[in-house]
Specification:
about 350 residues, about 65% helix, Annexin V, domain 1, extended, Single alpha-helices involved in coiled-coils or other helix-helix interfaces, 21 helices, mainly alpha, 4 domains
């Protein structure tokens, strides 16, 4: 009897129940929830969410032998997966962001927006803030409240802060009235807002014009850069000011890079190039950059670099400028890779 009881407790000697694929999925989800795992099912199509919930509600008790059989099958399926793909066009676009041309991305994004069953709020969450702000300026207070409510809290707070005071107050108050809106109405509002966005003109270039001009001037000589900026001041003082903020040159390193990130820079730049750039720091502005870099790395490395700088002697101006430009290019590469973040010129004000 004792052995029989043990077999019942462990499920030994009992054949697993035959379950449908939907029931097996329900078992895995229930097991994960029982183990305390945080799983997000909201990205599933709503009909799948509904079917899964109904199946979980219909199942009563699953014996241990069946549970172990489902877990083994699930594990074998995972082990057999070689490479996972997004499975949806909009998520494929997220995966390839920056890897395909803006024109192709825009055309495919419009196609994804028209796809049946796509979630418009996922699309809206990835829209630039300036475009969403335009919607918040033009739409009704009630629609604005739904938009703010559906965005991540931080993003919603940012947009709310950029609205005029009275309109921001009315939108914030309307958020409290959105609880009674049914999910289908919210989906339709999202779809209508996405439709507005698809009618925006296509942009052939990434980034604003000031950033693009600033990037070009980053690679110009100091004399050429100042000459062009002086000309821009005459033509359009406001645009010239935006370009000046977008420019990031060697002398901007102390104000744009956090001291803790300086070791990242010294590791990301080829040592001979960095030594050449620092050896060419012969003005008060560039000397400040040299001192900033050397004071924010280890003393041993700083001492070694000072010896290398002294041994190099005087560096020709053109060679020094080329090395400084190479340093900036390396820093930009670190920024694009997400390794470090540049501080904007006005963030410290």
């Amino acid at each position: 009897m004792q052995q029989g009881s043990r077999q019942i407790a462990t499920g030994a000697g009992r054949a697993p129940r035959a379950l449908t694929r939907r029931e097996k999925a329900a078992v895995i989800v229930r097991l994960l929830l029982a183990e305390g795992d945080a799983i997000d099912l909201s990205r599933l199509p709503e009909d799948h969410q509904t079917a899964l919930t109904e199946t979980i509600g219909a199942l009563k008790v699953v014996d241990r032998a069946t549970l172990m059989s489902v877990v083994r099958e699930f594990h074998e399926d995972l082990q057999s997966v070689g490479l996972a793909f997004p499975g949806e066009l909009d998520r494929a676009l997220d995966l390839l962001d920056g890897k395909i041309s803006p024109t192709a991305a825009d055309r495919l994004r419009r196609k994804a927006d028209r796809a049946v069953g796509s979630d418009p709020w996922e699309r809206l969450a990835g829209v630039p803030s300036d475009h969403l702000l335009k919607i918040l300026d033009e739409e009704s207070i009630e629609v604005c409240a739904v938009l703010i409510s559906k965005l991540p809290v931080g993003r919603g707070a940012e947009l709310l802060a950029r609205l005029p005071g009275e309109r921001a107050r009315r939108v914030a108050h309307s958020v409290s009235l959105t609880e009674s809106i049914d999910p289908e109405t919210v989906r339709r509002i999202g779809a209508a807002l996405v439709l507005q966005l698809t009618n925006l003109p296509q942009r052939a270039f990434r980034g604003d014009s000031a950033s693009r001009v600033g990037a070009l001037l980053n690679h110009a000589s100091a004399a050429t850069r100042e000459s062009l900026l002086d000309g821009l001041e005459v033509e359009d003082a406001g645009f010239a000011e935006q370009v000046r903020k977008a420019i990031f040159t060697f002398v901007h390193i102390p104000e744009r890079i956090a001291p803790r990130d300086v070791p990242l820079v010294t590791r990301g730049v080829e040592q001979p190039v960095l030594i050449t750039a620092l050896a060419g720091c012969n003005t008060p502005e560039t000397a400040a950059v040299r001192d900033f870099i050397l004071s924010n790395i280890s003393q041993r490395l700083a001492e070694t670099m000072r010896e290398d700088i002294a041994a190099m002697g005087k560096v020709r101006e053109r060679k020094a400028e080329e090395a400084m430009t190479a340093v900036i290019t390396a820093i930009r590469a670190l920024e694009e890779a997400g390794t470090l973040t540049l501080t904007m010129p006005d963030e410290g004000d």
